[in-house]
Amino acid sequence: MKDYNQLFENNKLWIKTMLKKDPHFFEKLAKDQNPDFLYIGCSDSRVPANEIMGLEPRDVFVHRNIANIIDNIDVNANSVIEFAVEQLQVKHIIVCGHYDCGGVQAAMQARDLGIMNGWLRSIRDVYRLHKTELNLIKSEKDRFDRLVELNVHEQSVNVIKSKAVQMSYQRTGYPIVHGWVFSLHNGKLIDLKIDFEGILNDIKEIYGLESPKDIDQKKKQQ
Ligand code: CO
Fold this sequence. Notes:
Beta-carbonic Anhydrase, Chain A; 5-stranded mixed beta sheet; alpha/beta; 11 helices
């Protein structure tokens, strides 16, 4: 176990390192943040957001939870998305899962998970949506990997459902939503290349958030 007090020693060293790189580092840090990216990832300690993307403090707004889930009524996650889009005006939202995700693995077993039942039910919903494809995969490991990818896809769709994303994209062409997976075995980030615009257009029929005023206006023009 790492000594608790070592963390403060590490902090002193970190301050020195940052100041060596840039003597004005903390002046800038205290001033403001202007990140272009919102990263939504898993809480897993092996997937440190800034490090794997090579980004410094100020560069990325981060939200992490178990298995990178964006639940539609999660006030925490949805506040992060709205703040990042409307106030920080991020250009890209990255939903990043990772292979060997304990949350996804737990959700694959049909058994009581205690307080986690509700949280991981979102992943079981993903499994149910893609059951035909998943059940055709013979190897359990491959099925696990595929569920990790499908979970990223579905959570990206949940981000796209949000009003903040839909309205901002219509107005400015941003943010673009991306789905990634991180591999613990080689450190690589894999872009799943989700079709952001295609998904947005496809879900609008059901999840479109035009105001009643706009809809009335359109009807009048027809
Ligand atoms: Co995980």
